[in-house]
Write a structure and sequence with these properties.
333 residues, alpha+beta, Jelly Rolls, 2 domains, 4-stranded antiparallel β-sheet, 11 strands, 38% helix
């Protein structure tokens, strides 16, 4: 269960609630969780997206632990793995400074699970209500997890090329940047092996190339614009000459969680020298793989990591014990 589902929204003053968040478009129904698309929204001047309020939010979130915020140097090439980026130290002491002086601090900050603050939770709840209407999908019924992040970055910052398990709606609140989105269903862009490695725990498995860039959906984003990228759709961003603030709503869906288990089973089958059938080509094979990984997965996951990786963690633990037992018997033989 997500933080959003576990807590009901707190009321806000009427002025805090826009009458409508999204400009309606057929793309919400036609392309949702299939292809990237751009849309318009009305949150650019929202009080919750102003720097002073974001400093307050960051100070609240950091009380949940250092994992609630990621802060790194903003200057990095798009092909560099985000795990290789230079992290900024002394986060708790310098956080207000990084945000308040974001135009000059050469920082890239990610505030995780902002719905832990009641005011942001109420806004996220309104966003989901409207997205359910626009997409025609019962999102709350279908999702296994939801998170809301806020990205704050200095001018010319780069968000490097990567994929996410989540289906995302990203809304630009301040500044301009260029979004480069890719079709995750195109295996010339994202291979089965990259997906398998990603779902086994290598979050940087997707690799950028100039050949892939030629197939990108390139959208110029300004305040009031947003983009949608489906689950596992590769993407990277380049900020313009102003600092950037963006809100991301990230959904995990049960159907995508099941597909992830197929990729995980395929990873091990490929390690055995086999050529596994990709997800979606055989319902029978998919069901066997889903059930197998499911045997080892948490029945009541408490985190997003538990949803995706609890089965893999247990399998690795079993494999490690078998290997250890073999070594013991080999020494005695």
């Amino acid at each position: 269960m997500s933080f959003l589902q576990a807590n009901s929204p707190s009321p806000l003053p009427p002025a805090m609630h826009p009458d409508r968040i999204f400009e309606p478009s057929p793309d919400f129904r036609d392309k949702f969780n299939r292809l990237p698309f751009m849309y318009s929204h009305y949150l650019a001047d929202h009080p919750l997206m102003q720097l002073p309020r974001l400093v307050e939010l960051a100070n609240t979130l950091i009380q949940y632990g250092p994992g609630s915020i990621r802060c790194q140097a903003s200057k990095m090439p798009k092909h560099l793995k985000w795990t290789d980026a230079t992290l900024k130290e002394d986060l708790q002491e310098k956080l207000p400074e990084f945000i308040a002086n974001i135009e000059h601090s050469e920082s890239w900050l990610l505030l995780y699970s902002v719905q832990r603050d009641p005011e942001y939770r109420a806004l996220v709840d309104q966003i989901i209500d409207e997205l359910e209407q626009l997409t025609g999908q019962p999102l709350r019924q279908e999702m296994s997890w939801i998170d809301a992040y806020i990205f704050i970055a200095s001018p010319r910052a780069v968000t490097s090329y990567h994929i996410d398990h989540e289906s995302t709606f990203l809304m630009q609140m301040h500044g301009d940047r260029t979004s480069n989105l890719f079709d995750g269903n195109d295996r010339s862009i994202l291979t089965d092996e990259e997906l398998e490695n990603f779902y086994i725990g290598d979050l940087t498995a997707a690799t950028y190339s100039d050949a892939k860039q030629a197939k990108a959906y390139v959208y110029p984003m300004t305040a009031g614009k947003g983009v949608h990228h489906p689950v596992c759709a590769p993407h990277w961003y380049q900020n313009g000459e102003q600092y950037s603030i963006a809100l991301g709503i990230h959904f995990d869906f049960k159907s995508d969680d099941r597909r992830a288990r197929v990729h995980q089973a395929n990873y091990y089958l490929r390690k055995l020298g086999l050529k596994p059938t990709p997800p979606g080509q055989s319902a029978f094979k998919d069901s066997l793989k889903i059930k197998f990984i499911g045997l080892f997965s948490d029945r009541h996951p408490q985190t997003k990591g538990d949803v995706l990786y609890s089965g893999i963690r247990r399998l690795r633990g079993i494999a490690a014990k078998i290997a250890q037992t073999r070594k013991i018997f080999a020494k005695k033989a």
